[in-house]
Structure formats: C-alpha cells, structure tokens
Amino acid sequence: MQKLREVLDASPLVALCESQVARKHLEAQIRKRFGAQVLKDWGLEELKTFSGFVNAGFRIKPQEKALWAVVFRRTIDEYGNEIRRKPERIAVFHPLQVRKVGSFIR
Fold this sequence. Notes:
This protein is an alpha+beta fold.
C-alpha cells in the first residue's frame, strides 16, 4: 500500500490544470467545504478521481461528496487540427476526504 504523498505525486489531473474555468470552480468548492487555508496548503494538484485513490489503497470517507468539474475532451486529427470538443463532467476528491484501507475514523 502506498502512502498518501506518493499517490499525490504520481499522477496529477492534467486536464483540470489546463482549464481555468474548471480551476476556479474547484477552488470555490474547496473554499466552501474546507476553508481558504486548505486551498493554500494543498492546492488543486492533489485532487484525484475515485479510481485514482482506490487503486492506490485508499477509500473515500463515509458521507463525503465529490467535487465536480466540467472539462472538455478534445479529439485531434493526424494534422493537429481539433475535430471535436466534448464536455465531460468529472468527479474528484480531495486528500482530506480519503483514508487508508484498514484505518478507522472515530
């Protein structure tokens, strides 16, 4: 089982970092749920999807709700031209919302 810091360093969500609208939306959600200090201390690079945390040996805490963002997936042809932009809603979780499998929360 990996440690939380190893999981966070492994694979940031690049699509969220590229979209300024998604970043602002997620920052507002984190400020509302956890406070501005958590946003300063952690940032957005630590956000992971459900499967990202589960594959690393973590579980979402009970009663935790996902943070939502809309990102656009681009389809590009062999010449580098954008063919299509498809909006996709992504659910991500903050490290404060997870725990290691086998650990207990009181």
